[in-house]
Amino acid sequence: MRPPPIIMQVGGGIVAVLALVALLAPWIAPYPPEAVNAGMAFAPPSAEHWAGADGLGRDILSRIIHGARPSLLAALGIVAIGLGGGAILGSLAALTGGLFEQVIMRLSEIAMALPGLVIALALTAALGPSLVNLTLALGALSIPFYVRIVRGETLTLRERGFVKAARAMGAGPIWIAFRHIAPNLAPVLAVYATMGLSGAVLAASALSFVGLGAQPPMAEWGALIFDGSQVLLSEWWVAVFPGLAVAVAALGFNLLGDGLRDWLDPRSGS
Amino acid sequence: MSTPLVDVEGLCVEFRSSRGWMRAVDGVSFQIGAGEILGCVGESGSGKSATASALLGLLPRRVGRIPSGAIRFGDRDLTQLDETGWLGLRGREIALVPQDPMSALNPTMRIARHLRLAQRGVDRREASARAAQSLARMGFDDPDAALRAYPFQLSGGQRQRVLLAMALLAHPKLLIADEPTTALDVTVQAEILRLIETAAHEDGMSVLFITHNLGVAWRICDRIMVMRAGQIVEAGSAHQVLSAPRADYTRALIASVPGAVPPRTRLVAQGGA
């Protein structure tokens, strides 16, 4: 197999570091994330506090490191719900056809015509602001996107020679779905899921920023940015470093997804 | 010939288009005896592949149908078969060698798995052993290496031999070969034809051999039917059809084989249906 492209290695590296940071947060964070220290309120970045401290003297770097957990977990949850629901509905739509397919596809078109983030905002507000509700709302709203991809890919795969050959050899519909369609769907979905993670990190931060996600004192990237937004002009570090974390995470997932697509695409490269 | 294995009578196949149901196969009748190779020759759109799909019960749902006609296979009428019945028949009594070897193998499965899955109702160990034997019979020098390979690691000819092995492992009574050599170069073509011929004549397997290549049909078929616009324009022994064609269309087909006519001769144009 070809070596993975550079952007995939870079993206994969970023994602791997983020994952490690999230996993090892309690051990690598220099301070407890909720340790208040009035003497250090709004301390600028220094050798002691690399990313400075917030209004309660909490170490920003530690809060970003701990914030990686809820932020990445929410992103994973969103994509898992979207991809899972999309894979089931999309492949069923493609394989059964008929009225079921029509209903699913028209519904997902309606859902895609709605402004997703606004609906997610309303939905989360209605369910009650929490990270779990935010994940559920954003996940559910991303289902139509995956439904369309999965249905399209399944329809293409169904017409591929090996599926026809398998049918001619007596393979039943369920066998074909799991042995012939699903494995060939996987690489495409891996690419979209990775790209989706980037969008999910951004969307989760956005909703947390407006107070619909993680509730204080939990450290979460979007919430951290909000904390710093009021003092952006004087104590810029409070908002900028968590913002960087979001940007780097989104960039990492995008690069990884992009590279993955080039790598898995038999038509590109050698 | 006693009762033929396959007895098709007045078969019609229609496909739905924007202008309603279009007839692709229009009242076709033919028989295939046990161990006989029947060639089905015609240009694209003549109804060859639609006939094959009907024999496999693989007409696309909702857009394909058989409005009339009968396909007797043994003592069953296949036009009356439901999907469960077909699942018991395909890959057991009727097998297919598909047209395009490059796409007919699942890229995510090794060859061994393909060959094992082709043997339904055979236990795993037994199936693996037979898979290796079948590849050896298909002329693979190193069957074990081929078994471990993924489809992309094999050449077109190798893949077509794998597909033929898969079809033959089912020990079908009827093999439908849908242009099995079209995508292959001439030497590989000859090899595949020899293997099909051997299986037919040694095991008494019937073959419906679909091709647009008259040379190939001449080489392998016992009898030939020539199809055009959904109908059989001529049928008879391979020798008779190709050396003394009665239908104008057959003559035109023969004349259009490259090399069969002197250069700069006008090709005979045939009006459409």
Give the helix/strand layout.
The complex is a heterodimer of chains A (270) and B (273).
Chain A: H1 6-23, H2 25-28, H3 60-96, H4 98-113, H5 116-127, H6 131-158, H7 161-168, H8 173-209, H9 221-229, H10 237-264
Chain B: E1 6-17, E2 20-32, E3 37-41, H1 48-56, E4 64-65, E5 70-73, E6 76-77, H2 83-89, E7 94-97, H3 111-117, H4 124-137, H5 143-148, H6 156-169, E8 174-178, H7 186-203, E9 206-211, H8 214-220, E10 223-228, E11 231-237, H9 238-243, H10 248-255
Parallel strand pairs in B: 3-9, 3-10, 7-8, 8-9
Antiparallel strand pairs in B: 1-2, 1-4, 1-5, 5-6, 10-11
Helix pairs in contact in B: 3-4, 3-6, 4-6, 6-7
Description of the molecule:
The complex is a heterodimer of chains A (270) and B (273). With 270 residues, chain A is mostly helical. Chain A contains ten helices and no strands. The radius of gyration of chain A is 22 Å and the shape is elongated. Chain A starts with 5 loop residues before the first helix and ends in a 6-residue tail after the last helix. In chain A, 46% of the residues are buried. The mean pLDDT of chain A is 91. In chain B, the strands form two sheets. Chain B has a six-stranded mixed sheet, with helices on both faces. In chain B, strands 1, 2, 4, 5 and 6 form a five-stranded antiparallel sheet that branches. By secondary structure, chain B is an alpha/beta fold. Chain B is globular. Chain B is built from ten helices and eleven strands. In chain B, helix 4 (124-137) crosses helix 6. Chain B is 35% helix and 24% strand. The chains are: A mainly alpha (270), B alpha/beta (273). Chain A binds chain B through residues 97-98, 160-162, 164-172, 179-180, 183-184, and chain B through 56, 58, 61-62, 87-92, 95-96, 98-100, 102-109, 117-118, 120, 163, 166-167, 170, 176.
